[in-house]
# Entry
Amino acid sequence: MKYIAEYRDGRLAKDMARQIASTADPVRSYHFMEFCGGHTHAISRYGIEDLLPTNVRMIHGPGCPVCVLPTGRIDAAIALAMRPDITLCTYGDLIRVPGSKGSSLLKAKAAGADIRMVYSTLDALRIAEAEPDREVVFFAIGFETTTPPTALALKAAIDKGLGNFSIFCNHVLTPAAIQNILESPDVRKLGTIKIDGFIGPAHVSAVIGTEPYEFFAEEFQKPVVVAGFEPLDVIQAILMLVRQVNDSRHEVENQYIRAVTALGNEKAQAEVANFFEPRESFEWRGLGEVPYGALRPRPQYEAYDAEKRFSMVTPAAKDNPACECGAILRGARNPADCKLFGTVCTPDTPMGSCMVSSEGACAAHWTYGRFREKARQPNAGTAVA
Amino acid sequence: MNMMGVKPCNWKLDIANARVDLSHGAGGRAMRQLIEGIFHKAFDNVWLRAGNDQSAFAVPAGRMVMTTDGYVVSPLFFPGGDIGMLAVHGTINDIAMAGAVPLYLSASFIIEEGFPLADLERIAQSMGDVSREAGVPIITGDTKVVERGKADGVFISTAGVGRVPDGLDLRADAAHPGDAVIISGSIGDHGVAVMSKRENLEFDTAIVSDSAALHGLVAAMVAVGGNHIRLMRDPTRGGIAATLNEIANQSKIGFHIDETAIPLKPEVAAACEFLGLDPINVANEGKLVAVVAPDGAEAVLAAMQAHPLGAEATLIGHAVADENCFVQMTTSFGGRRIVDWLSGEQLPRIC
# Structure
């Protein structure tokens, strides 16, 4: 596969790993947070940790939209979907996310709710056009990458005069979340989370550019390297971060120059700004209320805002008290630290959202990396052949 | 499938234009006409011609195997095959994975009211063709028709019996540390071929399903390495990942496999890339995974490579002692990862 295989080349990876090993100062440690779930997935899927020296460690960040969605929003979506007039269209990765009391969209669907999995916003629009008697609601979720397609869906719905289409908006904003992590007591005062630098988002940065990160790099004196999602991108970004730390630099560097510019995709930004405005506050699972951390449709598009159109309420929902998703999303705990991990909580029976999405830290660790925990125990995993 | 003693219909079955209606499942003349005009014609053999409600056959001495499988694939026709072909190949392969020689099949149809007779004939013809080609006749069957909306076109169940060669005893719990893991060819072809025709996903690809009857390949393997083959599986739903995890758990061992060794067509890799699928989870319908004792691995591999359905057979890894029964893979990138079962459903109704 041209233009993909090159970014997964094992020989180049070994070379990069050697450079990291020779560049990293053996007397200090390096802790880098990859913000995005896409990076978490790549690190686990390709076994990148095996290529890093023991003093270079990755902390998985909260950049998984499914993982940071609070349980109450799932409960609200389920309540809406149970209405007989509603068709709820959702991306597949939301369908198994646990709501309160063991509920999920999948279970609601089995109980008779009209919930349909779609691959794009256009599929939802097509359903609305084909079935004018149904109230078609698109469960809009994601970071800056998926917001422009939702904006275009709203535009198309307005152009076509589709009166039966609306969105349940859960779009969230990356810079606000990074700032929230850096300002958290864990990082700032208590020092319980040590972060020496960030791998910045790939696709998000293709939309917003690298400029929004300049503030963190400067204010919090943390280097940021925007990187692509291929494994060679990630390992190169780690090398760039190690070099910045060694040089006491805290700059925004762009490893992903084949897709990301300083200003990003200004057309997409303009479309988003046309249709959406920031929410003063929005709850993120794990981070709590994040000021200006999410978007909602502008008041003039209220008719397309399912929360307004159907007077939706987001109930306060308590997570399983033993679930460590919150601390894991902040980077304060590792998946294997959670008592539920791998016991009652697995990808087949997820208790927390981090175990649902393949980009979630727990699911990635369980699916690809759990042999590492076992390998630390004696008498396990002896290779014979 | 047989309705002796009912007078034939005096109207002709309009296969080109007519559709299945409830009378085709009601036990009357219309049903007999459907069975004779489509199924008997397509499967034609001495047992069906005998016109009994069951078929009798002599049982050879030794161990027999029996298996059954349901087919609900959507769409019914896909590049390289159709539901009928899958229903015959799939059951033959389940028998063959015991090292057995498949002998006879049965076929049962649940048809949705309104299903075009032309499509039904095409499916039946495909089943007849591949069963003749495989030398495994369909000797009995059943037809039911359900109201519109109670099924999706047609569902097929096939069952089969086969005879195990003397002295051969392949078992799911027989893999040992050190055994070789061999795959008969490239992975993921069937799943990608079906996905390429799915509603909402349609994309152009040259990939066709690998649906094939594997008993000939198996016979060639058994001939050279019967005593060395521990077990075989056809990695259908869940792909080779599910197959290796099943074997690991049943044999209480682990596997170490090498991602770069796994045969994968570039087109399948590309389709998996944009669909967000991992080829090791994608279904195959004409491939087998064999776990072979180290002493026999070379001979079995050579026998496979000499057979047209095993030309790309490759050693992809080994069984290891592991009480956790992990399937681990060295990635193309040089790291290690677990190869896990899929959670939930990656590709519903793939076979």
Remarks:
- Chain A has 17 helices and 13 strands.
- The interface with chain B takes residues 1, 4, 8-10, 13-14, 17, 44-51, 96, 118-119, 123, 231-232, 346-348, 363, 366-371, 374, 379-385 of chain A (CB under 8 Å).
- The first strand of chain A starts at residue 30 and ends at 36.
